[in-house]
Task: structure prediction
Amino acid sequence: MPTYRLAPSILSADFARLGEEVRNVVSAGADIIHFDVMDNHYVPNLTIGPLVCEAIRPHVQVPIDVHLMVRPVDRIIPDFAKAGANIISFHPEASEHLDRTLQLIRDQGCKAGLVFNPATPLHYLDHVMDKLDLILIMSVNPGFGGQSFIPNALKKIAAVRAMIDHSGRDIMLEVDGGIKIDNIAAAARAGADTFVAGSAIFGKPDYRAVIDAMRSELSAV
Ligand code: DX5
Ligand code: ZN
Result:
């Protein structure tokens, strides 16, 4: 069985109590904190930046997975590295020079990821597999929490799983958007090993109950 990781997205957390929220979700069993950065330019919403990453950093030991939905991307990357990010991913459409941006992330001491929207083709992967630590498949269009899972994402996850296996590299395959207790197993069967869930976890009063139920679904895959 692959190592499955659950990455709650703080987009659906209570921002007035963010330190407590991340501590609670990690004690409930989260493996990673997923941190959604939106700029009201690349996506039509505005969220949080490096200052907030720095503020939550002392509250948890688990990796912080920064998902950049911003354009341009390069200028802000060192700020997130300094703020304690462990993984930084971005959308290929938002960078003029993919290879350079991936290298910049690794040069800053972080793991590097590339994110694919539902309609973004996978050919961006063709020449950069050796520079990737994570591939993120969006199962909603980026910009908002609480949207419904787009089933076509499963085929894309399966295609990327085959590419990763063929490469023989250690690359995490993450899925983001509309993940719930009742569809997490399907995403795992398609080949995902890391699961972002925002509203499914932070939208419920008992984080541990949701995380345990997700793990139980995954253990049956
Ligand atoms: C969407 C974000 C997601 C989102 C997930 O642009 O990248 O991380 O917060 O939220 P849910 O799980 O509610 O779809
Ligand atoms: Zn995200």
